[in-house]
Each structure stands twice: as C-alpha cells, then as structure tokens.
Specification:
Distance between the termini: 30 Å
Number of domains: 1
Helix content: 55-70%
Order of helices and strands: HHHHEEHH
Mean pLDDT: 93
Strand order of the largest sheet: 1-2
CATH architecture: Orthogonal Bundle
Low-confidence stretches: none
Amino acid sequence: MTRTGRGFDADTDNSIGYLLRDTARRILGGLTARLEPHGITLPQYFVLRELWQEEGLTQREVANRVGVLEPTMVTTLDALERLDMILRVRSTTDRRKTHLQLTPEGRTMRDTLHGYASDVLERALGGISDDEIVALRRVLQQIKRNLA
C-alpha cells in the first residue's frame, strides 16, 4: 500500500516534493545557462552571493551558508580565485582561519549576475499575481522553518 499525505502523491504532477525539486531544477538550469558565458558555475555564484551580502566571511562560514562541506568549498574557492573574483586573506588573529574578500572584479559582477537570477525568476513567475508571489514566499519560508 502506498502511503499518502497532504503533500505526497504517487502522481509526480501532484506531489509537492517532486514539484519543488523539478521547479528548482528548472530555475537553476536557467541560471546556469546565463552564468556559463562568464565562466561562472552555480556553486561559484552561491559563494559570490554570500560575499555580496557579507564580505570577509571565513571559508567555513561560507561553506555552512551554502550548504557544502569544506573540502568541496576549497575547489570552488580555488576557481573563483583563478577568475580573479575573490582573495583569501589569512586571519591576523587566528592563523587557522582564512577570510574571503571580493576583488574589484568580483564586486563588479554583482549587478550582472543578480540580473540573470532576476530574469530567470521573472520568467518562472510569469502569469502569477503579486499576491500569489507573496503567499508563495510565505509558504516556502514556513516549509524551510518546518525542516530546519
């Protein structure tokens, strides 16, 4: 017997989990296509977004915020350093810590890359009213809190 609930449905067209996954996959795919000409990957974009919000975070802090393990983060940061988007700066108070700073190039890319994310989401939200978008945001935030 298949277990059912308010969100689960064996029909993937009606399963909340499947719809969320498939929607996220399509949004991220659209953003990936927009980032590729700049040589930026999604993981690199996620790191840059965190640094645009709060520059000077440690590698560990960025890894936690992005939701990846530190060894994975090192590869992403190496690539961003090669692209001249970030600098690693050794902490003056704790040699074990490395802080991440944006380069002028990393700062300059902010509006362009945020614009791509905005474009993809505007396309995704076509035909949806402002009130529905407010409700969607509220529901998704509640789902995140429930799973935290």
